[in-house]
Amino acid sequence: MTTDTPTKLMLIDGEWAESSTGEWRDITNPARRGEVIARVPRAGQEDVDRAVASSRRAFEAWRDVHFTVRARALLKIADAIDERAEDLALITAQDTGNALRTQARPEVATLASLFRYFGGVAGEVKGNTLPAGADQLQYTRQEPLGVVAGILPWNSPLMIAGFKVPAAIAAGNAVILKAAEDAPLSIIMLAEICNEYLPAGLLNVLTGGGRTAGQMLVDHKGVDKVSFTGSTEVGRGIARDAGERLAHVSLELGGKNPSIVFPGQVTDKLIDGLLMSSRIHRQGQSCTAGTRLFVHRDVEDEVNERLAAKFASMVVGDPTDEASDIGAVINESQYKGIQEYIEEGVNDAGLTVATGGLPPTEGPLAGGNFHVPTLFTGGNNEFRLAREEIFGPVVVSIPWTDLDEVIAMANDTSYGLAAYVWSNDINQALSAAHRIEAGWVQVNQGGGQVVGQSYGGMKDSGSGREVSLEGMIAGFTQTKQINVKIDV
Ligand code: NAD
Fold first, then answer.
1. What EC designation does it have (predicted)?
2. Distance 121 CA to ligand 1 centre (A)
3. Phi and psi at residue 146, to the nearest 5°
4. Of 302, 309, 346, 395, which has the most beta carbons under 10 Å away?
């Protein structure tokens, strides 16, 4: 760290705050190992207590305001995000390593859309009335839960904050975000923007450790819901601890997602779609990455060959460089973990490296956490590389011939987050989509989440839905029934 390294603070009760512990964490540049780009506070118990108290105060007022007040605030924030879009994208590229052009800018655009969408549907947080006779008024209210703790991962902090904050606030809750240790800077910038338009305490932003600040929020009696996105392992502990005190919980966890290619013409659209669904542009650091590629034997050679060529044509480089298609992996520990998987694949006689392999050890990429897109072919569903979430730019292609067998392989995983089906026969495609155990199946496309859609996992990929209108109501409200006797 140099003397001009920027210091970024937490937002508590509308004010910028250091940690009560006096501790700091250096934030480093994934593209240049050892380069410190900022330092942020490590929140302790006192900070968590202060954030919870201020969120509770803000909630007491916000729960009763007219929905148009909530809508107006969210729409203003959406406009302000648009105005600062380039700053948000740049800071995202700098602390996450996600490439500016292909990843960081689209992420910011999704964030603005999510604020706009939930601003638009804030008035839809409605109850219903029962036709219970002239002497009865029997109706329900969808009431907010209270204080929501949103715990974020590092892979796409802004988009995931966008899945939580506007929906929770539109439904009348207050939110405390706990940013990921390695990528808090874009979330602090989002806090700056929101702080202009929201009452103090309605959105607090903490930085700090998972086992410290994160766990304190999970255990805090003043937190009514924990909305967690991260690994399955940590999610399991959060479900246990928040469940122990009967807090509401939703979990968006890991994935090892199948992508099934049926026989047919191998078009450019198919190859581009497979590239997109593999989330190679995000260094494979996406819970929805289609990393188990089941290709029908009739088209196996052509698909693998053309996809390998596509992977090889991607430009890996500094995330802030416009020329880069792919940026850097978040930190050295993830980088090394991915490298171990690749080494295992390279040394396994059962697998062939169609493109990529071990990361560069010389040249401009050697100084950062850069991996190259890697496609293994000839695998089967039993390989460790096909079973565990690598969270790197690594795809394993597995041939198939029998439909029942490929559906069984697709479902033979503890995860159930996303899936992709590629077929020009719509009956075939939809029948497969219905049989796959995943919370989100895409047919003949591989893009990211779109505003308004439902999103969430099955099996070990999580539980609860928050992102759609229905998700907002299910995830951020509770139903109260009111029965009134009328003298007629
Ligand atoms: P992680 O589980 O290590 O950390 C996520 C967050 O939880 C961080 O903010 C961390 O500080 C916090 N945390 C850690 N221990 C905690 C504890 N005991 N109590 C409370 N909070 C705690 O995950 P990560 O490495 O940051 O992210 C990668 C993982 O996230 C991958 O498994 C990926 O699939 C998953 N993910 C899922 C989705 C989804 O929508 N399903 C989206 C993005 C990432």
1. 1.2.1.3
2. 28
3. 130, -120
4. 395
Q: What is the CATH number of the domain that holds 214?
A: 3.40.605.10
Please tell me the total count of domains within the chain: 2
Q: What is the mean pLDDT of the chain?
A: 97
By C-alpha distance, which of 152, 149, 77 is closest to 113? 77
Summarize the confidence of residues 363-380 as an average pLDDT.
96
Cα–Cα distance measured from residue 205 to residue 51, given in angstroms and rounded to the nearest whole number: 8
Measuring CA to CA, which residue among 13, 248, 12 is closest to residue 143?
Answer: 248
Say if residues 95 and 182 touch (Cβ distance below 8 Å). Answer: yes
Q: Closest ligand 1 atom to the C-alpha of 457?
A: 41
What's the gap in Å between 152 CA and the centre of ligand 1? 6
Confidence class for position 131, pLDDT limits 50, 70, 90: very high
Mean pLDDT of 367-395: 97
| Tokens matching residue 356 | 């990529």
Distance 66 CA to ligand 1 centre (A): 34
Q: Are residues 162 and 298 in the same domain?
A: no
337 lines ligand 1 (CB under 6 A): no
- Average pLDDT for residues 289-297, to the nearest whole number? 98
The answer on 267 and 249 residing in a single domain is: no
* Domain housing 407: 258-443
pTM of the model as a whole: 0.97
In ligand 1, the atom with minimum distance to the C-alpha of 417 is 41
Say if 454 falls within a structural domain.
Answer: no
HEC profile for the chain?
A: CCCCCCECCEEECCEEECCCCCCEEEEECCCCCCCEEEEEECCCHHHHHHHHHHHHHHHHHHCCCCHHHHHHHHHHHHHHHHHCHHHHHHHHHHHHCCCHHHHHHHHHHHHHHHHHHHHHCHHHCCCCEECCCCCEEEEEEEEECCEEEEECCCCCHHHHHHHHHHHHHHCCCEEEEECCCCCCHHHHHHHHHHHHHCCCCCEEEECCCHHHHHHHHHHCCCCCEEEEECCHHHHHHHHHHHHHCCCEEEEECCCCCEEEECCCCCCHHHHHHHHHHCCHHHCCCCCCCCCEEEEECCCHHHHHHHHHHHHHCCCECCCCCCCCCECCCCCHHHHHHHHHHHHHHHCCCCCEEEECCCCCCCCHHHHCCCCCCEEEECCCCCCHHHHCCCCCCEEEEEEECCHHHHHHHHHCCCEECEEEEECCCHHHHHHHHHHCCCCEEEECCCCCCCCCCCCCCEECCEECCCCCHHHHHHHHEEEEEEEEECCC
* pLDDT, tens digit, 9 for 90 and up, residues 163-219: 999 999 999 999 999 999 999 999 999 999 999 999 999 999 999 999 999 999 999
